[in-house]
What we know:
This protein is α/β, with parallel strands linked by helices. It has two domains: 2-61 and 370-419, Urease, subunit C, domain 1; 62-365, Metal-dependent hydrolases (TIM Barrel, Alpha-Beta Barrel). It is 38% helix and 22% strand. The chain has 14 helices and 17 strands. It has helices at 44-47, 83-96, 101-117, 131-144, 167-184, 203-216, 228-237, 244-250, 269-278, 286-291, 299-305, 323-340, 350-362, 394-404, and strands at residues 2-13, 16-27, 33-37, 50-60, 62-68, 120-126, 147-151, 153-154, 189-191, 194-195, 220-224, 259-263, 281-284, 309-311, 379-382, 410-415, 418-419. Strands 3-2-1-4-15-16-17 form a seven-stranded mixed β-sheet. Strands 5-6-7-9 form a four-stranded parallel β-sheet. Strands 11-12-13-14 form a four-stranded parallel β-sheet. Helix 4 links the parallel strand 6 and strand 7 (147-151). The chain is globular. It starts with a strand and ends in a 6-residue tail after the last strand. It binds guanine (GUN) and fe (iii) ion. Fe (iii) ion binds next to strand 5.
Amino acid sequence: MKIYRANIIYTPTPGKLEIIPHGYVVVKSNGLVEGVYKELPENMDWRRQVMDFGDKLLIPAFNDLHVHAPQYRNMGLALDLELLPWLNTYTFPEETKYADPEYARRLYRRFVHELWMQGTMRSAVFATIHPEATRILADLFIQAGMGAMVGLVGMNRNSPDTLQNTTDEVIEGMKMLKAHLDEHGDGRVMPIITPRFVPSCSEKMLTALGEYAKETGLPVQSHLSENRSEISWVHELEPDTTCYGGAYDKYGLFGQTPTLMAHCCYTDGEEMELMRKNGVYVVHCPMSNSNLSSGMAPIRKFLNAGIPVALGTDVSAGHHMSMLRVMQYAIQVSKLNYAQTKGEMPFLSLSEVFYLATKGGGSFFGQVGSFEPGYEFDALLVDDSYLNYDNYTLEQRLERYIYLGDDRDIKRRFCRGVELTEPVM
Ligand code: GUN
Ligand code: FE
């Protein structure tokens, strides 16, 4: 049992921040939250164990539900093209380098370290087509104590010969990754089935990955309706499906097991209905969608329809690993969308984006992203004292931290109840 005292802020529902000034969170030895209290119950045994964090903020840790680990070196570079030429010119050449396990180890170390630094305790990650490099990445997550779903990427068409695998190779690679993680993981690092996107994967590969999902129940991640040229191309490649999402659905890769679809900038009508019906997650990546001139995803419509929504950096189309930045962009892009639709889509509130970055994304990992009883205690202790020089309320302090803060403000990080010190890898 551990008990922490601080200014506690979390979002059981999107609409409202739960704020407990100088409250207590009681964490059981299995790492799950026992409860949050304004006053500690009269239990002397508990009172002796309080760790008092003074006036700091204690919030759920962040969850990044869409990020490309092998694009880490390109972060903050090469954002002068739209999606398809951007992939060919900058992204595929960089990912090709991960055939070399030593290169992979050197860069993946930095990537995992930076997730830790930014307070992102869980992530859904694209690796590359390379099984050895992907296993190295998964092992680094285990070593760091962080949660992650790691995907060996499947791609066998419309990409350089040097960056393609065969259907057999991706299935065999996923089986090896799964066996490795079943043996060495503690359940927090898991494999995720990862067809890159429809234009990269043949019918044969999509069929095999769909069957593998059905057989194992493993989750799926991919890209959907990100950019106009991409969508037209998918209609040419898959002429008998009426929407892009329908192509994944046809192969059993659209909610038949838990599924993440990044972007969804142009998702509407039939595709939106299919996502709702199948419980497919939208991963909103507004930083990436701005950088690649992709578009503005109709997040308000998804929320109104009851479609689950999470946030992602999408590094390196997104230029920063901080979920604080993603929250800022999510609000700002929603305001541009609000103006553009003449008020038809009300913009996102601070509590809504905070919910999406914590509990919204966390729900993909189970009971993660909140401090309600039974939730895994994933948390950040934030020292915003340099921003808090006047009588700001706790709600205002959270707002200023989201807009003005950065990784240096995070003083402690917890994942499933365990404090994670800086990974030395
Ligand atoms: N679609 C297919 N691959 C990618 C990628 O690496 N990044 C983004 N943003 N979209 C993609
Ligand atoms: Fe992406």
